[in-house]
Design brief:
Four Helix Bundle (Hemerythrin (Met), subunit A), 5 helices, globular, 0% strand, mainly alpha, 131 residues, single chain
Length: 131
């Protein structure tokens, strides 16, 4: 990995960590829709970093999800449950950003925080093993 790529990976990891911390702050203030958004983006940045190590980029969020599922979930490099979680995060992020009458609540969102923390750690471990 060249210096430019290493800097890119480090940037994506830092952004992920920042967004995850933002999600926890939003949860403490019962800002559930915004929390979902930040949880999604915390994982999004790591998946982008992981795929970039494979020379893969995507132009859309759906494209990124498709590539991730194809290269890591269907090939069983990562567990199917992680693909389902990321798909749920993308769907909920889309709902929270674009639906008129979406209203996530504490019982729906709080369990996601720990799940996303685990997902993000697995993604970071995979990134570090590839770099």
């Amino acid at each position: 990995m060249n210096n430019s790529q290493a800097n890119y990976i480090q940037y994506r990891i830092q952004r992920s960590d920042e967004f995850f911390q933002d999600a926890k702050l939003l949860a403490k203030n019962s800002r559930w829709q915004s929390c979902v958004n930040r949880l999604y983006y915390s994982s999004f940045h790591l998946i982008e970093a992981l795929l970039s190590l494979d020379g893969i980029s995507a132009k859309t969020h759906e494209g990124l999800k498709t590539k991730f599922l194809q290269l890591y979930i269907k090939t069983e490099k990562l567990d199917l449950s992680l693909g389902k979680l990321y798909t749920q995060l993308l769907d909920w992020r889309h709902e929270s950003d674009y639906s008129v009458f979406v209203d996530f609540d504490k019982d729906e969102v709080l369990p996601l925080i720990q799940q996303v923390e685990s997902l993000n750690q697995i993604l970071k471990d995979k990134i570090l093993s590839k770099s």
